[in-house]
Design brief:
single chain, 653 residues, alpha/beta, Beta-Lactamase, 5 domains, six-stranded mixed beta sheet, six-stranded parallel beta sheet, 23 strands, elongated, nucleic acid binding, membrane
Amino acid sequence: MTVKMTRIKNVVIALLLIEFIFALMGYVFLSSNTSLVLATYIFIKNVIVLGFIFYSSSLANENNLSVSEALNNEAKNAFIFGGIGLIKYDENRNISWISDLFTEMKLNIVGKKLLEWQPLLASLFEDDDIKVIDINSRKFEVYNSKESRLLYLKDVSDYVGISKEFEDQQVCVAYITVDNYEESIEQADEQTAASIQSTTRQIVLDWAKENGIVLKRYKSDGYIAMFNERTYRKQVEDKFKILDYFKEQAEQLGQMMTLSIGIGRGSNILRELDELAFSALSLAYSRGGDQATVKSNDEPIRFFGGNSESYEKSNKIRARVIAQSLAGLIRQANNVLIMGHKQSDFDSFGASIAMYSICKAYGKKAHIIIDYDSLEEKTGVIARSLRDDERYRGVFITPARINEFNHSKTLLVNVDNHKPSLAIDANALDIIKNKVVIDHHRRGEEFIELPLLTYLEPAASSTVELIVELFDYQKENVCVTEREATIMYAGMLIDTNYFRTRVGTRTFQAAAKLKEMQANVSEAYKYLEDDYDTTLTKLSITQTAYRYGENILIAFGRQDKIYSRTLLAKAGNELLGISGVKAVFTVGRTGKEEVSISARSTRDVNVQLIMEKLGGGGHFSMAACQLKYEDVTIAINLLEEAINEYLDERTNE
Ligand SMILES: [Mn+2]
């Protein structure tokens, strides 16, 4: 109740009293009946009126008390206790007054420009948002009352602290596996095997202990881990350096082992976390392992690591052991079938020929499975000419003829491929039990079931390199003809982009070995030569190349022309040879309503990540995507956006 109201109330009470006193005096002096009645009436009336006044004023006292009246001089303390601060600013947005809370915080900002002091507050002048800002390392929620040019600030540090603590304590589940563990143990002697076991385990255990992670081994090369969000964030900050550390340590043991980590987070339900983690692990496998993949319910999938594009392993012991095991399997078999991948290229075909030569050295009957409808164009030319050659009578068979062999005594050697879906004949994998896999591709999620022997060496340039290396470790002398050696050489050329990428010392040793075996190098180049028309088309694409950023090139085909994907890739390869160029993208129509992008890079740019943004995929330095558009320009715009995004992420990391 206001002071004024109280005053009026007091005056009324005084008037009522005076009126009663007058009436009483009138009765005392006059002593008439009329004055008695009047005095009695006034007495009763005033008692009722007073009662009414006191009652209503007590009600008003309770309800109508405004904050400022109630607090009066206490307002300062109440605001400080509640963590409420006020800032007044003038029409130029200069701070003109601050409330006591900020004076107590010794904030010296009166006279300063508001937005110079807290640039983040700018948004409060555009919309009516509430903003959280930092003042002296405390968090304040700010509301802007534009009419009165007053900012209301509320200290929410405690709340922010608690909510951060809550987030930090959220549980994450992870599956961690050691890639290539079984194979390494299998090939190692007893002592090395023991140190592989103890070292790998120790590294993972130490890492877990250091980071407060609960870890349990659930199979010889697999762990399940639990930790909280804070630990996860720390790993993200470190970019999961455990991956590189593990790889280095394995290398010191002479082993090629990496870690694959699948993490599930962002859910309160443990079962769901487990499922997220497991599917994240599968994803890590399908991308070649050596990486951490993170899945959560409400955020996009994240990837870490996987940056070891390929590196050479100098350990030749493994090759020797593999050579011996392979020889044993060949000897035991009645006959050997050799199978490459669909759309066989020179590496697939050359590796098949190399394998065939080893079998021949042991006097085994060997056949190469070929699907003439699924051959890369130039490989097809050579394959058909061999088929028509008298000396290879019966060597090449179509998938339909597999049934002619006694399946239980047949050995099926898969070269340059480890995925059933890419095999020339997936059916053969089901009916033949004894299988060998020799491949240089990074292990994917999909893998041929239960091979007797697996030789997976992602460090190798090509499968030809792997098999030629095995020649030296055979007890029998492996002989190849000049033409066979030339085909194998062409396989190495194509997989290394003419000895430009993925080459190690062992690549050149294998190439030298082929040269020794009379490979005709210039002939091999000829196998791979493009004809006049193809060359012109390729040139028409490369000449459109323009710089995007410092060391990225983008080239594109004509709007009215349809190209093959291989041609786009070739044009890209060509441009990658230009000095200083780190990534190349070639864009062109590959169908009526399809525009394809082929991406190539050196080790500096991960084009896989860029293509994934557009729904494509591939490897670190070799990727592609297909877009459902007719217009090449639209595709180029999308590509530029994706590149920008990628570059932004890199600088933010
Ligand atoms: Mn290959």
